[in-house]
Recover the amino acids of this structure.
């Protein structure tokens, strides 16, 4: 039971990391970012390639988010150039196209097989009372917690983060901040989280395969819808809820006919029909040269 | 040889019904359906189970399977009435994965590999020949086209075509009832396609209704132009003929889907562009005139 709880916690950390990146990107893009699964796939394969080349894990976990951040910026730039943002449907089609093409490219380059991601220096097992934790568990907990704290700090306390939110709030006035395009900056942050999540998932689950992007996308999309589009806190809570069901409840109910997707779909329908929270008053970030405050708009 | 050609046309006809159902929800209602094969799977397994295990006649099993698919679509599509953004793509995607896992695990039906020995329908105590079955499929296509035509010309259907950019309208709010009805009709049509497929193929497996099938059907509709009926029909028949005669191209169909989605996001097919709506005259404009 306790060992299942540790597994559920690790899964929750991975889902929370990935889903918060998707929620942030979706907020910046003002659309569900379906290409996220493709970026996640690149992160997984980058980690696999680094470990296969006998590089240390820390290098893989730096390279994968960096590579994905560059990819995210390039994709966001191309999307803007080809004017794929003209409607919600075309934005979704663009994301779907990127996801499928990335899957096919990885199939072409890596083959159809499931590749093992074996980190030589991570086989150390630690005993914590009755619990058995490997280095991978600590790595997942640490990285996910670190990324979460970093994202929270960036968006709520740091000057660039609050300014970024302020610029993203002004929907009709696309601006630049100190020469940086806020949309591309947000794409880099979100995609780097996808890369970190892809790398950690590859290490934790010990495999990469071309369909991993498509397989996780429906779960992340559901989490983002359940937690609230663009609400990172709600999405993180939903992620730990899913991990609880997947890691703790599902192993106890092996004979039940309903897979995890059933509970996910049920939660999606219920939350869509009866939202857990009332609609929040619209808040915008007001950044002045010497202060920052969150302003609640009275829309009544 | 002739039977093989007839079988090819039956397979293409069933694909036409599935793609028409995708076009209904993704084209007219402008809501991407990423898991239309789930509804086809529900229809196919319902019809096959009723006929094989309960010895129900096809002529009763087929309408029941259509009804069940529509009921699932109506139940799961209810949040559309609350104008929840992106609900349809996410719900259909998850439903498709769920249906695939349910069928694949075999816990529900006990047939993880697939369901076989599904008989062809009988009419007056004799099994339908391939030619008659082709006629049945053609009739089904005609029915679907008629339903689509009636829906588009109804008052509620017209409201869909008047919907401009969904982002400006804050999702589906003004037209959500029309979108909901389109979703239920499309689920019923997909169930019909699944039922016909089950009794045509004689054997169905979960892999016939996986997410790749759904995405390929969406890609075929997008290739012809979502919401552009002649283009969709030409696309599905043309691609069906190409894939039937060049089986070696089958592994590349997902490449095709990816490229078509990218092109469709840029406005493909470019000859089918919706003309911009004239903006209503403002009082100051009238005064100026």
């Amino acid at each position: 039971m306790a060992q299942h709880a540790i597994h559920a916690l690790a899964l929750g950390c991975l889902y929370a990391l990935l889903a918060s990146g998707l929620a942030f990107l979706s907020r910046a893009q003002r659309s569900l970012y379906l290409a996220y699964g493709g970026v996640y796939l690149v992160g997984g394969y980058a980690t696999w390639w680094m470990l296969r080349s006998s590089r240390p894990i820390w290098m893989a976990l730096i390279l994968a988010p960096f590579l994905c951040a560059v990819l995210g910026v390039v994709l966001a730039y191309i999307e803007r150039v080809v004017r794929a943002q003209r409607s919600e449907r075309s934005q979704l089609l663009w994301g779907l196209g990127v996801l499928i093409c990335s899957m096919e490219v990885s199939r072409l380059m890596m083959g159809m097989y499931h590749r093992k991601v074996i980190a030589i220096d991570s086989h150390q097992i630690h005993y914590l009372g009755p619990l058995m934790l490997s280095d991978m568990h600590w790595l997942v907990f640490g990285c996910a917690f670190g990324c979460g704290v970093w994202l929270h700090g960036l968006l709520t306390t740091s000057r660039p983060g609050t300014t970024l939110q302020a610029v993203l709030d002004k929907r009709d006035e696309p601006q630049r901040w100190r020469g940086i395009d806020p949309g591309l900056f947000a794409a880099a942050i979100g995609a780097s989280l996808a890369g970190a999540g892809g790398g950690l998932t590859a290490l934790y689950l010990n495999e990469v395969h071309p369909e991993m992007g498509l397989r996780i996308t429906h779960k992340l999309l559901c989490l983002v819808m359940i937690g609230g589009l663009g609400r990172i806190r709600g999405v993180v809570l939903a992620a730990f809820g899913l991990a609880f069901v997947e890691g703790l409840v599902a192993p106890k109910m092996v004979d039940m006919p309903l897979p995890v997707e059933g509970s996910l779909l049920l939660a999606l329908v219920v939350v869509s029909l009866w939202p857990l929270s009332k609609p929040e008053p619209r808040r915008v970030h007001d950044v002045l040269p010497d202060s920052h405050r969150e302003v609640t708009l009275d829309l009544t | 040889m002739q039977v093989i050609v007839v079988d090819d046309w039956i397979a293409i006809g069933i694909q036409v019904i599935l793609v028409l159902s995708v076009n209904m929800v993704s084209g007219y209602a402008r809501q991407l359906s990423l898991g239309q094969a789930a509804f086809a799977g529900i229809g196919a397994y319902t019809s096959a189970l009723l006929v094989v295990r309960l010895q129900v006649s096809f002529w009763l099993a087929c309408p029941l399977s259509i009804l069940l698919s529509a009921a699932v679509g109506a139940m799961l599509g209810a949040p559309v009435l609350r104008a929840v953004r992106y609900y349809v793509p996410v719900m259909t995607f998850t439903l498709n994965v769920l249906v695939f896992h349910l069928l694949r695990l075999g816990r529900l039906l006990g047939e993880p590999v697939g369901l076989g020995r599904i008989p062809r329908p009988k009419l007056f105590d004799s099994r339908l020949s391939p030619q008659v079955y082709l006629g049945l499929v053609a009739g089904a296509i005609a029915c679907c086209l008629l339903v689509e035509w009636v829906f588009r010309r109804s008052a509620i259907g017209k409201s869909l075509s008047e919907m401009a950019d969904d982002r400006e309208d804050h999702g589906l709010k003004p037209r959500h009832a029309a979108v909901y009805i389109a979703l239920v009709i499309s689920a019923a049509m997909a169930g019909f396609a699944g039922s016909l497929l089950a009794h045509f193929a004689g054997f169905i497996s979960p892999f016939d209704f996986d997410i790749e099938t759904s995405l390929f059907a969406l890609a075929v509709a997008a290739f012809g132009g979502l919401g552009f009926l002649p283009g969709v029909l030409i696309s599905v028949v043309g691609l069906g003929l190409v894939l039937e005669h060049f089986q070696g191209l089958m592994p590349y169909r997902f490449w095709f889907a990816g490229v078509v989605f990218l092109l469709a996001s840029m406005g493909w097919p470019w000859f089918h562009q919706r003309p911009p709506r004239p903006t209503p005259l403002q009082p100051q404009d009238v005064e100026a005139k």
